[in-house]
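Hi L.,

You mentioned the student needs an example of a multi-chain input paired with its predicted structure. This one should do, with 323 residues in total across all chains.
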Amino acid sequence: MLSVGDSCRELGVVSVQRNSLPMPAVGPNTSALIPSLDAESSAWIVRLRGDSPDREQALSDLHALLLRATRFELRRRTAGQPHLRGGDREDIAHQSADDALLAILAKLDDYRGESRFTTWAYKFALLEAAVNVRQRAWQRREIPLDADHWALIADRTSTPDGVAESRELINALGNAIDQSLTPHQRAVLVAITLNDVPIDVLAQRLNSTRGALYKTLHDARRKLRAHLRERNLDIHAVRQSE
Amino acid sequence: MSPPDHISRDQLIARVIGPSEAELTCDECFDALDRYVELELDGADADRVVAGMRPHLEGCPACQHDYGSLLAYLKSRPKSG
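Structure written out for the whole complex:
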């Protein structure tokens, strides 16, 4: 999903100036391809078309909707971040709404009418705001990539009945992380699952993408589960205890 | 930096080994997220319609975050907008 933000950059927009957004043209056939579209969503598509006389007003209206969504996300996600002042939050909200608008216009022909248009649009705004907040929060922080914290897990309490089995599982998992994974798989797994590094922050630091890193994580987990199954360790019991 | 204290050992192990069911990719998740959340809010069986979404949300903290945000925002809005 980092590709959503990437799509804005692919448009050649490095620094978006408010009120002067370079708007990509929108294909004329979107609404014609979606016969089941509700009236309000249809109206949005028609108004946003490149040849619509109402397009400028539609862009302004959509931007206002997106800004409400990004402000909502900013309020939700920055309550515990005192380093973000009100002015900073407002800047991030505007930047995120700008980026979301560009992403939406670039992908308008992909809208299939499987939800209301506004729901489809909100997800871009919320994503951009969340990514911006996460990037800001990790701006000058070191990304922990080593597996030293595995030992901390072994010290956590568990239910008394499951202690012995859990200990065996912990040891087997520790061995699998050390021995079965490539260094890259190990770094990605540890950063995301043990150290709570957001995947888009990690993608930026490693010059990768969210999708590519999740594939790496997925492959690493598959190796770990196979390692445990070979030793007849019950991973279902753990998942059901979540 | 260390694993958050409020998460139990079993929860951490589950995070590490991830979901064993077939799951969507992050891009597929984002594509279907609006539909999935609307279905859920409408009381439909979203997990049957969008197979693979739930395991992905369990395995991907960032997508889980995005899902939670869209759900919370739609709940905060009047249904028409």
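You could point out the following to them. The interface with chain A takes residues 1-4, 8-20, 23, 25-27, 29-30, 32-35, 37-38, 58-63, 65-66, 69-70, 72-74, 76, 80-81 of chain B (CB under 8 Å). Residues 26-41 of chain B form the longest helix (16 residues).

Best wishes,
N.
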